[in-house]
Amino acid sequence: MNSPEYRESVCGSLYNTGNSVRLRRALEKKKVNLAFAGGSITKGWDGKGYLSENYTDYITGYLTGRYPDTEFVSSNLSTESANSFIGLSITDKVIGETGPDIVFIEYAVNNECGHEHIVSYESLVKRMLSLPSAPAVILVFLINKSLYTSQGYMKRIGMHYDLTSVSVADTMKNMLENGFEWEKYSDDVIHPNIWGHRFIADCVINALEKSCSDTCKTEYTVPDPVFSLDYRDYHTVESTDSSVRADGFENFSCPEYGEYFSSGLRYINGHRDASVKFEGEFRTLFAAYIHDKTDRFSDADILIDGHKKAVLQGTSIYGWGNVNLRNVFSFETSGRHQVELRVRDPKKEFILIEFGIS
User: Fold this and answer.
1) What is the spatial distance between Cα 293 and Cα 74, in angstroms, rounded to a whole number?
2) In principle, which of 12, 278, 317, 328 could form an S-S bond with 285, CB 3.0–4.6 Å?
3) What is the pLDDT of residue 2?
4) Angstrom distance (rounded) from CA 220 to CA 217
5) Secondary structure (DSSP) of 67-89
6) Which of 288, 237, 224, 228 is nearest to 83 (CA)?
7) What is the pLDDT of residue 258?
């Protein structure tokens, strides 16, 4: 890992140095809170299990060694299959108590390239930048074996907001074109192994070093949006919320879906008039539920003010018994609405994790 070729690849991952004022200011503190937002890669899954150390640990270790008089507290706000929609939900639940000084965001292999994901990603970036703790935000772009990455619009957002941005995707593409074997980086088609996590960490550390060496004193200001901030005010409506009324559902503890989605409502099999209702003020409605490749889960209809607006598909080729959070319906303007969820097939399962509104 000390070869000239390795260092060249690491250095080649720096896409944008960004305005470093917030980062340098954060690193002058006696205690620095780090937050890592991402999917299973950031959580440390390598395709077989969770690594004892992953790239978030290596970055935290580097900072601890580089700034020995500073206490670094790291919070991993990641979960399996998470995209920036799920990032908004996790942020809404825990970011206040985290109070981060530096935030790392990684969703390039889980996000899609459509409008909804672009809006959710920019909304998440803007929400992080607007936190009371005024954190520095670092963007990390990864890639899978088929060379998929949604970094295109993420790069544009990073440049628009002048954020430190690290494209592991770009440097990996270049390495693969020059004979590098994917299997050195990953033991499956997505998740980095130990070498891969070390490489990601070194790319991010290089970007931190380059950014910190910038002596520009221009104060950072958060610009107007480049795409849309429609989901910036995302708010979670959990099953325990007083506004939620469930008939034919039972409270369900589901830690296997991750610490941030560990409770929900499970349909009671055979209950033909089952429904979940709530009333709230919103422009956009979201729903998080469990889907799977098999026909284990029923579809569910979503009605708003008595009119069917969407179907939550329990069976999906993209599901593996994981949490799916999606935009259900958007109105032109915000207003007060009544929401109802109805299970279609009384013989199958359905698990509702939460609603979200914005």
Assistant:
1) 35
2) 328
3) 78
4) 9
5) STTSEEEEEE---TT--HHHHHH
6) 288
7) 72
Q: Rounded CA gap, 255 and 249, in Å?
A: 18
Q: What is the per-residue burial (b if ≥16 Cβ within 10 Å, else e) of 32-57?
A: bbbbbbbbbbbbbbbeeeebeebbbb
Q: Running DSSP on this structure, what letter comes out for residue 62?
A: H
Strand partners, 288: 325, 354
State the pLDDT at residue 342.
97
Q: Which H or E element spans position 87?
A: helix 84-98
Task: State which H helix or E strand residue 60 sits in.
Answer: helix 55-66
- Give pLDDT, residue 281: 97
The pLDDT score that the predictor gives to residue 200 is 98
Structural tokens at position 158: 């990073």
Q: What single DSSP character describes residue 219?
A: P
Backbone angles phi, psi at 200, to 5 degrees: -60, -45
Collect the ranges in the chain with pLDDT lower than 50: none
Q: What is the pLDDT of the chain when averaged over all its residues? A: 95
**β-strands 164-167, 136-141: how paired?**
parallel
Q: Radius of gyration of the chain from Cα atoms?
A: 21
